[in-house]
Structure formats: structure tokens, C-alpha cells
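Record minuted for everyone:
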Amino acid sequence: MYSSKLVDVFYTLSKKQLRALRKFVRSPYHNKRQDVIDLFDLMYKTPLDNRIALRKEKVFPKLFGKEPYSADKVDYVMSFLFKVIEEFLIHQQATNHSTKAKMLLADSYLDLGLPKHFQQTLKLAEKELEKNSLRDIRYYEQSFSMESQNLNFLSKSQRNTSINLQEVSTKLELRFLAQKLKQTCLMLARQAVYKRQYDFGLLDVLLPYIETHPNILEHKAISIYYYYYQAVTNQTEDELYFQKFKSIFLESNNVFNKKEFQDIYIAAVNYCIKKVNIGQPEYQQELFEFYNAGLEFSILFDANNNLSPFTFSNIVKLALRLHKLDWTAEFIEKYKHQVEERYHGTYIHDAYSMLYFSQGKYQETMIRLQQLNSEELFITLNSKVLLCKVYYHLEEYDVLESFLNSFMVFLRRKDILAYHRDIYKSFIRFTQKLINLPPFNKAERVKLRADIEGTQKLLEKNWLLEQLA
């Protein structure tokens, strides 16, 4: 039993849901079996980490006393409880979404032959839907469903008068376009990662239609995906479309539900990262602005209001690359407490060390690097690179040369992917050449610069070139 579907679902429910489920199970309308209540109570008192206590042979005497053991009887009760839980989840879906509940109620009134009640309830549902600021795909789905409900009513009760065929058609079109463009963007993202080709179906017909009906783009659930698709696929006007997409995104915090808005945000961030990676560094500023928006709109925080240490670190690195030192210092101070405490020994010290180095505070940088306690290989590797740069700026060349040798030994001993080993080895090799460069040998300096510029797998290329300059 402890590895059953019932147990899986039961222990996924929140404490609030379990309290509501306890009342639901005890309601005679939903359940009349005492053994189902007893099984619920037993599971409610059994913590998740002790779920092995829910083995059938242990559960049976608590449900059936001294009766002869029967696994089938336990299965029978389990199936009843599982059905009650499924009914509870359906009930929650209906009651937690007030507009959907009113639409279901309107259908019931129509089935009962109560037209006035139907019309009043449907109007309440429409009013509630329009009052909400959300204009995401769910809005267009519900708007179309309401218009269809009304068409069903009018076609039966008012055969000789005008009915809302045009309204149904328009809302169906908006719903379809929003869903189709969203799905297309999801397929594009998947295609880029997994190198799989998709058939986009009617898209080639829909795009010209949208272009000849620009009023459709007034609907943000359509225009945001339309402009994103064009930015990704149109190589000549990608910047124009991206800026239109960005403009709509920054105005859409209350237009989309949180999950959909996060998905759009991730697509935007990935777009900027890809542009930077293919040699368009100006998109670092765009990425920075999206990170800022993610903080402002609370997209970057999880359900417990925590900020991922990886995101925290990426923001710090990007801001420093853009020379936003004051902004970075404020960011670290403001958001470090929203990174879980267990990551502070790694990511917070790492962030401060990068900031202090950029500020030219080399002694403070070394203090932070000494405090850094990381089991993550790449944090360790990057801290070693930073320490090399500190020694260089402090003109501790003997210490630096010894450290570079130990760094190379470290790389040989660690199990690192060949690509990453190569870029760190290249950094060590060129740093060694830099400190051994004859001070007045112009030809050697020119040759070293050419070697650095011509090396693809190289970390800190800009810093090395700056030192030569």
C-alpha cells in the first residue's frame, strides 16, 4: 500500500487541503463508509517519512480488528478512499475558480429549464471575467465558452430572432490564435534544444491573416507570442520584433497568470543569452533589463520567496560585466537574505569577492575567497581564476607563478569535461606568458596579443588583453 497511487496523491496534498479533505470524507453525501474514514485518519496521522508503516498487513488490523487478514479488503477500502480524493480534487477545481463554477451552475439551470436563472448566472460570470485584469489564454477560453453557452440558449429559445453567431466566431478565432501562437513558441523552444523539426501546421496561413488584421495584435495574449515568434525566426527584422515583444512584456504583469508569465519570461531570458552567445554583446544590457523586471515582478522568486543561488550569481556576474558596481552592491545587500542560508558559504562569498575585485579592493577579495566554502567544482575553479588575477594586480608574481603551477596540478587531478579543462589550461598558460613577458620587447607583446585573440577556448580573454594594453 505504501507505494500505491493513493499514497502518492495523499502525501502531495497541502496541510490546508488535507484539513478540507477530512471534512469532505466525513460528509455522508460524499462517503458513507466508516472504514474509509478510518483509513483516512490513519494516513493523516502517519508522516510521509514513515509511510512504510502503511503496509497492508499493518493497516488491516487497524481497519478490521481481529478478522482474518485479506489484502483484497484493504485494496477495496483504498479504492474507495482514492475515488473520494479524486471527487474532492474536482470539487476544489470548481469551487476555487469562481467564474468556472458560475458557468457550471448556468449549465445546470439550463438543464433544469430555468432560463431566467441561466441568464442571470451567465451575466454574473461574464461580469466577473471582465472585472479580472487577466487576459491570458484561459480568459479567451472562458469567454468563448460563455458565448457558446449563450448561443446554445438562444438557438433553443429565440429561433426567429438574431443570435450571437458572429460573437461566437470572433471569440473562437481569438482563442485559437492565442493558443496556436503559444504552442508554436513552445515548439520553437523545444526545437532549439533538442534539434527536432516540427510541423507548424496552419501557421503559414495564420501569419499573413494577422498581418492584414492588425487589430488582432491589440490582444496581448496573441501579440506577445506573435512578436516573439517573429524575433526568433525573422533574421532581418529580429531586433524590431524583439523590442515590440519586450514592450508588451513589460506592460503585462497583470495580464497573464503567474505560471504563463514565468514561461514567457524564461523564453525572453533564453533569447537574450543565445544572442550574447552568438556574438551580439549588446544583448547583455537587454538581459540585465529582463533580470531587473524579474525582480520587480517577483518572477524570479519561488513559493517561499527564495531566490535561486544560481540566478543570484548570474545576475551579479552580468551586472559586473556591464560595470554596474553600485547597482551590484545594492543588489547583493538587498537580496542576499533571500538566498537560502545553506548557500551563503558559497554564493554570497563568491558574489562579494567578484564585487570587491571589480572595485579594486584586492585585500577584501582575498578575505572573501578564503571564507568561500564550496563543494561545487566550477565555483572553486572560478575562485582560483579570480585569485590569480588578484595576485597579478598586487604584483605578487612569484606567488602567482607558484599558484598557477598548483592550479594546473588541480586540473589534472579533477574529473572535468575536456572543454572546460582546456579553457582553464589556456588561461593558466597565457597568464604565465604574461608575467614572463620581457617588458620592452614589443614584438613578443604583439605576438602574445595575436595568440590570445586567436584562441577560441580561453577564459578571461578581455582581462588578458587589458593587461597587455
In short: The first helix runs from residue 5 to 10.
